[in-house]
Amino acid sequence: MTRSRLSLAPAVIALLAVATACRSDLSWPSAGPPEIAGTWTVREIEGRPTLAGAEPRIEFTADAAAGSTGCNSFHAAADRRDGLLRFGAAAVTRRACAPEIMEQETRFLSALAAVGSYRRSGSTLVLEGSGGRALLRLVEAAAAVPRG
């Protein structure tokens, strides 16, 4: 490089930095999504309370979710980033339970498949579908008070 091109480099870098900072659509990285790792108890499925004693549970790890549907065990990949959450197809055991528990399991798995985002407020986690509609409302297992 010639000497005149080298002297322009800092000016070009500064100009690019200013132009980038002035963009209105710029999204600066946040501190990351709220932490949801751990075990959660499902309290509502699409606004309906879960059955006492048969509440589904979800344990989140870095890239998966596993737990109980209230009857059967399940495991699914979980892709979580930037406030978005998508589950892969759930692998589910095939145990039969009472009809009302099986109906709840069907609703739970359908809701899980439709999740697209999440939000956490304290010990409450809401898994949302399109348009921010609450599909599943959960509480941290440590904060869950048994229902009788």
Q: How would you sum up this structure, described in words?
A:
The chain is α+β, with helices and mostly antiparallel strands. It is 24% helix and 34% strand. It has two helices and ten strands. Strands 1, 2, 3, 4, 5, 6, 7, 8, 9 and 10 form a ten-stranded antiparallel beta sheet that branches. The longest helix has 20 residues, at 3-22. The chain is globular and about 40 Å long. Residues 8-33 have low confidence and may be disordered.
Structure summary:
By secondary structure, the chain is an alpha+beta fold. The chain has helices spanning 3-22, 99-114; strands spanning 38-45, 48-49, 57-60, 64-68, 73-81, 84-87, 91-92, 117-121, 124-128, 134-140.
Describe the secondary structure blueprint for this structure:
Blueprint: H1 3-22, E1 38-45, E2 48-49, E3 57-60, E4 64-68, E5 73-81, E6 84-87, E7 91-92, H2 99-114, E8 117-121, E9 124-128, E10 134-140
Antiparallel strand pairs: 1-2, 1-3, 1-10, 3-4, 4-5, 5-6, 5-7, 8-9, 9-10
Keywords:
148 residues, alpha+beta, Lipocalin, ten-stranded antiparallel sheet, 2 helices, 10 strands
CATH class: Mainly Beta
The number of distinct structural domains comes to: 1
Low-confidence stretches: 8-33
Q: Tell me the helix content.
A: 10-25%
Number of helices: 2
CATH architecture classification = Beta Barrel
SSE pattern, N- to C-terminal = HEEEEEEEHEEE
What does the overall shape look like? globular
Query: Strand fraction band?
Result: 25-35%
**Count of extended strands:** 10
